[in-house]
Amino acid sequence: MANNVKKLEADVVIAGSGPAGTTIAKELSKSGKSVILIEKGVYRQKATGHLALFRNMEKWGMTYTTEGVMYLQGVGVGGSSLLSAGTSVDPDPDDWKKYGIDITAEIPESKEDCWVHQAPESYVGPATKRMMAAADEIGQKWERINKFIDLKNCKRCYDCLMGCDEGAKWSGIVFADEAVQNGATLLTELKVNNAIVEEGTAGGFRARGKDGQEYEIRGKVTVCSAGALGSARILKRSGIEDAGNTFIGDPSIQAYGFLKDGKGSMEELVFSVGYHEKENGVFFGNIGGPKWEWRMQMVKDQKLKGLMNAFRYGKAMGAWAKIADEPDGQVFLQEGKVSKRFTKRDLERAEYSRDKLKKILSKSGCDAGNIYLSPLFLPHPAGSAPVGKVVDTNLETSIKNLYCCDSSVFPEGFGAPPILAIVALAKRLSKRLEALV
Question: Is residue 204 a part of any domain in this protein?
Answer without folding.
Answer: yes
